[in-house]
Design brief:
Number of strands: 20
CATH class of the largest domain: Alpha Beta
EC number: 6.5.1.1
Number of helices: 7
Helix content: 10-25%
Shape: elongated
Order of helices and strands: HEEEEHEEHHEEHEEEHEEEEEHEEEE
Structural class: alpha+beta
Largest sheet: 8 strands, mixed
Catalytic activity: ATP + (deoxyribonucleotide)n-3'-hydroxyl + 5'-phospho-(deoxyribonucleotide)m = (deoxyribonucleotide)n+m + AMP + diphosphate
Strand content: 35-45%
Protein name: DNA ligase (ATP)
Keywords: Ligase
CATH superfamily of the largest domain: DNA ligase/mRNA capping enzyme
Organism: Stackebrandtia albiflava
CATH architecture of the largest domain: 2-Layer Sandwich
Distance between the termini: 65 Å
Oligomer: single chain
């Protein structure tokens, strides 16, 4: 079986954390459709916080994409060194997310990075993050980046990572199966990876990210002035009332006469069921009569659209 130590061209590193600090995670190009063929494999596009996690047997070091050390923000990884004891010094590439059942959510992890380390440690007990691992850059102190993805994957799978706050990302041989996994985990895309690809700290066509876009028919229940400009508060009609689906900023400026369409619909109370939408500043409520079409990446565990974009006002439905 593959072993990085048996390859004479594998460079040895004296300090695995220093090595990780000099590396930037490999990035994918984007495409509308995934490439197909036997030379490709497919993973879920997790959309989480990208990190490199390294250990030489002691407490792990967690570095963000830009090299920020956030180890103290993720105390749930404190037992990780023991899980990879036979592979140290080791550096692994992956993403941090909060897992709720089968659904995954990067939002709480992103929010934690804006907290103090002490507050983040308390948040870790309330909503622990999971390190989803999909690549290995250093194994037993030797650089594995020059090996093919297929070889690196075999080395990674031999680690048999399965713990309370870490695990190995699943892979699929077919993009349709990867899409099914993406939907199962509540994510909005997949990544195709060439089996023969080596690891580069730059964007490359050997990895191709494909976003799944959905279209929803919603109604406007209000608007507010976001830092970037006007954003619409949109909702979905259900038998139990109007369910808030999020704040849509992208695409709003491209829709002509939107202000005219909302004129005369003002109301004093929120039209949405339950609690008022949070984090939207001072909202201006309107009667939910204006139908709109919104393109998005999916629905997060909180019921909000991911990456929403206003496509058009459905004048034809008025």
């Amino acid at each position: 079986m593959p072993d990085a130590d048996r390859r004479p061209e594998a460079t040895a590193f004296g300090n695995v954390t220093a090595m990780a600090g000099r590396v930037r995670p490999m990035s994918a190009t984007t495409a509308e459709t995934a490439p197909r063929g036997g030379e490709w494999v497919y993973e879920v596009g997790w959309g989480g916080v990208r990190v490199l996690v390294s250990t030489d047997g002691g407490e792990p070091t967690v570095l963000t994409r830009r090299g920020r050390d956030v180890s103290a923000w993720f105390p749930e990884l404190s037992g990780f060194a023991e899980a990879v004891a036979g592979a140290v010094p080791v550096t692994l590439d992956g993403e941090l997310l909060v897992v709720d059942g089968t659904a995954t959510d990067p939002g709480p992890v992103e929010a934690r990075l804006r907290m103090s380390a002490a507050t983040a440690a308390r948040e870790a007990r309330r909503r622990p993050a999971t390190f989803t691992v999909y690549d290995i850059l250093c194994h037993r102190g030797r650089d594995t980046r020059g090996f093919a993805w297929e070889h690196r994957r075999t080395v990674l799978e031999r680690l048999d990572l399965s713990g309370p706050a870490w695990g190995t990302a699943p892979v699929a041989d077919d993009p349709d199966e990867a899409r099914r996994l993406s939907d199962e985990y509540g994510r909005d895309g997949i990544v195709a990876k060439r089996r023969a690809s080596t690891y580069h700290d730059r964007r490359t066509r050997d990895w191709v990210a494909v976003r799944h876009r959905h279209v929803a028919q919603l109604v406007v229940g209000g608007w507010w002035t976001a830092p970037e400009g006007t954003a619409l508060l949109v909702g979905e009609r259900t038998d139990d009332g109007l369910v808030h689906r999020g704040s849509v900023r992208r695409g709003v400026d491209a829709v002509p006469d939107l202000a005219v369409a909302l004129d005369g619909l003002d109301r004093t109370e929120s039209p949405f069921r339950g609690r008022k939408p949070s984090g939207v500043g001072r909202a201006h409520w309107v009667d939910p009569l204006l139908p709109v079409e919104v393109r998005h990446g999916g629905i997060d565990p909180g019921g909000l659209l991911t990456d929403p974009e206003l496509v058009r006002v459905r004048i034809d439905l008025l």
